[in-house]
Amino acid sequence: MTPDQRRTFIADHTTIGPAPFVPEVRLHMGGLAMSLWEAAALADERLPVPPPYWAWPWAGGQALARYVLDGPDVVRGRRVADIGSGGGIVAIAAALAGAAHVVAIDIEPYAVEACRLNAMANGIDTVVEARQADPVGSDDGWDVVLAGDVWYEAELAAYMEPWLRRLAARGAEVLTGDLGRAYLPAAGLSELARYTVPTLVDLEDVTQKEARVLRFGAG
Ligand SMILES: C[S@@+](CC[C@H](N)C(=O)[O-])C[C@H]1O[C@@H](n2cnc3c(N)ncnc32)[C@H](O)[C@@H]1O
User: Which atom of ligand 1 is nearest to the CA of 60?
Assistant: First the structure.
């Protein structure tokens, strides 16, 4: 599929509206997960097609976006990376909060196109650069590194954690948002904020969850 075809698919299979916990950010959002995944799989030549994580703002990402918008000093004038950006809620919040530049990095091509569409819908597409990559191991000298809801798989967590720790050790401000996923690092994080975030029953089995914003390193 070409980037244009992915953007058309996203536009055809989502509706645009405010993120539930971060209404300052407008996003293309999907309906029921399974039917959207089936439609994405039918449209895509890849096997298997990953779940359409890009189609919803996840609770960890919503918490992190809320934190950044409520305390914009953390990103204002700074060079920011959003890791595992999905539809880009965290990157867009950072741009709206005054970041100088935000790179939204996701391994999944649908996510990159969703983030591009969402950045345009929020009028900050000159600040947010959506990039398809696996960023683990790289370092563009970012001042701030944000990662919303990336602790959902053991392998991914074990892969990302040491790299995020290295970025924090060299002086980057590294923050994550998480609702209590199984593979959130058990130590070495300090809590900055805690929110009750609305969630979709289809995705999380409940209508709300407590999600925290955590900083890599001592408090
Ligand atoms: C649960 S979604 C979270 C999306 C967004 N941060 C949010 O909170 O709404 C996790 C995202 O991480 C991405 N991802 C998984 N492994 C990755 C990797 N190695 N490099 C970059 N992105 C990755 C997935 O494609 C997915 O979009």
Answer: 8
Q: Would you call 175 exposed, middle or buried from its count of C-beta atoms within 10 A (0-12, 13-18, 19+)? A: buried
What does each C-alpha distance from 26 to 37, 41, 93 come to in angstroms? 22, 25, 10
CA of 35 to the centre of ligand 1 (A): 20
Q: Model pTM greater than 0.90? A: yes
User: Tens digits of per-residue pLDDT, 166-205?
Assistant: 999 999 999 999 999 999 999 999 999 999 999 999 999 9
Q: Which residues are near ligand 1 (CB < 6 Å)?
A: 53-54, 57-58, 60-61, 84-86, 89-90, 105-108, 111, 134-136, 148-150, 152, 156
Boundaries of every domain in the chain: 3-216
Count of other CB atoms within 10 angstroms of residue 32: 11
- Alpha-carbon distances, residue 101 vs 125, 126, 186 (angstroms): 10, 8, 31
Nearest-angstrom CA–CA distance, 154 and 147: 16
Domain 3-216 CATH superfamily: Vaccinia Virus protein VP39 (3.40.50.150)
Task: Tell me the residue type at 112.
Answer: V
